[in-house]
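# step 3/5: fold
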Amino acid sequence: SRFRNEWFTRAITRGTGMFGYLMMLPSLESIPVDDKGRPTITGTTYSGVDLAFSDKARSDWNVIFTIMVGDDGHNYLLNIERGRWSSAETVDRIIDTHVRYGSIIFVESVSAQRVVIDWCNDKKADVPVYPFNTRGQGETHNKWHGIFGVEMVAAGLANNKWSIPRSGTADDPGPIDPLVREWM
């Protein structure tokens, strides 16, 4: 296995109470601030979109996964959303995600991805949407790429470069969000 449970445990421990009573962050405006009013974490936000356009009960989910790469190089999980959304609703959710987090959006490169980008542009949403190729060979094969893919997530977790949010405190941790559990 590329991932070890103890890596996730450390990331959850670091993330416990990160957003106060919230399990995940509804928007960047919800980031806690220090006693001088400065955000406790700052960085660049990214959202990855995994498309699955089917409303059948056994079909895959559309997923929007948002992180912040902190100015310190640390990765902070901000939010995970999933649903069996229509194409139009998916585009609206991508635009909403960009508005709430200011994130740069990467959409899985499947045939529907071109439509998603076109719709965002047609709505004049000014959302930075880029393709992310998960298939192919060599440099275009990002799913297992050492910098852009699953390998880098595993390396980051192993090297304590992730914080996964959990409500509560170190003495009284809250539950782990069900979508975080599924991701893990």
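# step 4/5: annotate
The chain has five helices and six strands.
# step 5/5: archive (pending)
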